[in-house]
Specification:
alpha+beta; 5 helices
Length: 256
C-alpha cells in the first residue's frame, strides 16, 4: 500500500536528519580534536579531555605574568609593614620598660631622700662606749693596767693614751676621772728625768704645769708616769695598775 504524502514527507525528513547526524558523527570521528567553536573550545573524543577556552588561558597568563611583580611587591610591602610594626612594638616595650625602670629609680631616690635625715641622726661620731667632746672621742677603761700596757691598748683601738691640748679638755677629763677613778694619761718623763713629754712626742707646755697637784711631781719611788688624781695631776710608778683614757678624732656626720 502506498504511503501517504504526509507520512512520506515525515519519513523523508527523519531519514534526512539521520543522515545529517551520521554525517556529523563521521565528521567528528575523522576530525577527532578539531576546534568546533570559534572561541577556542576544544573537545577530545578519545580521552574526553576538556581544554579551557583561549580567553581563560590569556587571563591566567596575564595574572601570572602581568600581575606577578605587583603581587610580589604587595607581599614585600605587607612583610615590611609587619616587620615595622614588630619593631615599633619592640621599641615601645623597651621604652616602656626603661620608663618603668627610671620611675623605680626615682622612687628609690625619693625614699632615700626622705630617709636621709633619719639616717643622719643614726650617725655616731664616736663608737659605742666612747664619749664625744669638742671633736674628739674618749674611751674610759673598765679595768686597770700599768702605764705601758695602757699605751698599747689605746693603739690597738686606733687611738692614743690621752694627750691634753686645751684647758677645756683638761677640765672635762679631770672631772670624769674623779667620777671613775684614778686614770693614766699619756704623759711621762721615762726618757729624761724631769722632762715631761706626751706620747705623741710633744713636750709639756709651761702653762699646763699649773695642773700638778701641790708638791707634784716629786719623783718619789721612781714616779715617771702621770695620772689624774683628785683635782689635778700626780706622778706615780708606771708599773702600778690604774684605769686609762684613750683619745682619737671623731668621725664627721652629715648635717641634718
Amino acid at each position: 500500500m502506498p504511503l501517504s504524502p504526509v507520512v512520506s514527507g515525515t519519513v523523508g525528513q527523519q531519514r534526512k536528519m539521520s543522515g545529517s547526524e551520521e554525517g556529523r558523527v563521521h565528521q567528528l570521528g575523522s576530525l577527532d580534536e578539531e576546534h568546533l567553536i570559534p572561541s577556542g573550545t576544544r573537545y577530545s573524543l578519545k580521552g574526553f579531555r576538556f581544554q579551557p577556552p583561549c580567553v581563560l588561558k590569556k587571563a591566567t597568563g596575564y595574572l601570572c605574568h602581568g600581575l606577578g611583580p605587583f603581587v610580589l611587591q604587595l607581599i614585600c610591602l605587607t612583610l615590611s609593614a609587619i616587620l615595622l610594626l614588630a619593631i615599633l612594638v619592640k621599641v615601645s616595650n623597651v621604652a616602656y620598660s626603661q620608663g618603668q625602670e627610671q620611675a623605680k629609680k626615682e622612687k628609690v631616690y625619693q625614699e632615700m631622700a626622705q630617709l636621709k635625715p633619719q639616717i643622719n641622726r643614726l650617725c655616731r661620731s664616736c663608737s659605742w662606749d666612747w664619749t664625744l667632746f669638742q671633736g674628739n672621742c674618749y674611751f674610759f677603761s673598765k679595768f686597770q693596767q700599768n702605764w705601758n700596757d695602757s699605751v698599747t691598748s689605746c693603739r690597738k683601738l686606733d687611738a692614743q693614751l690621752v694627750v691634753i691640748k686645751s684647758d677645756d679638755e683638761q677640765s672635762f677629763l679631770q672631772q670624769t676621772s674623779k667620777e671613775k677613778g684614778y686614770a693614766w694619761m699619756g704623759l711621762s718623763d721615762l726618757k729624761h728625768e724631769g722632762k715631761w713629754h706626751w706620747v705623741d712626742g710633744s713636750h709639756l707646755l709651761f702653762s699646763f704645769r699649773k695642773y700638778w697637784n701641790s708638791g707634784e711631781p716629786n719623783n718619789d719611788q721612781e714616779e715617771d708616769c702621770a695620772e689624774f688624781r683628785g683635782d689635778g695631776w700626780n706622778d706615780a710608778p708606771c708599773t702600778i695598775k690604774k684605769y686609762w683614757i684613750c683619745k682619737k678624732s671623731a668621725m664627721s656626720c652629715p648635717e641634718t
